[in-house]
Amino acid sequence: MQKVVRIAHNRGWIHKNPFANYHQKQETTHRTFLTTDELRKLESKSFSLPRLEHVKDIFIFSCYTGLAFVDIAGLSTANIQMGVDGKPWIFTYRQKTRNKSNVPLLPPALRIIDKYQNDIESLQKGQLFPVINNSKTNAYLKEIADVCGIQKISLFIWRGILLQLP
Questions:
Q1: With CB atoms 3.0 to 4.6 Å apart as the test, which of 24, 32, 128, 144 could cross-link to 155 if both were Cys?
Q2: Rounded Cα gap, residues 165 and 163, in angstroms
Q3: Per-residue pLDDT of the chain (166 residues; tens, 9 = 90+)
Q4: Helix H or strand E encompassing 59
């Protein structure tokens, strides 16, 4: 918006740039990391409600691949290909940055893919996983954190928690 106003001002279409003295402060964010123990708690917990089980699995997949929710939602079987090392990789473009992303699939991520390979909803939509919208996913993640006894509940949102292995 500021760029458009600046161009209009420079071309004489407006007499004063209303943003001339406005400076936006950039907030620093502090990322919180899941410990190995917290990740193991999540991985070992089974949920009888399919919605919680799906969200848990997709979040764990995110931990092992580093992909954001929107990137996982857009994955299909076509994105899984053999890498030069002869092992399966994800080949995709990140939605936010449009950068190419090649991600090796670790055994826990492969197990999650195998778990959902015959999921009817995913197959009909052409997706790798049954993914619901981001706001519901975040709400369910908070519920999962409560059940698993993870104290980072207020920070337990899709992009805010990362996995830090020793």
A1: 32
A2: 6
A3: 778 888 898 999 998 888 778 777 877 777 677 888 999 999 999 999 999 999 999 999 999 999 998 999 999 999 999 999 999 999 999 988 889 999 999 999 999 999 999 998 888 888 999 888 888 988 898 899 889 988 764 444 444 444 444 3
A4: helix 50-65
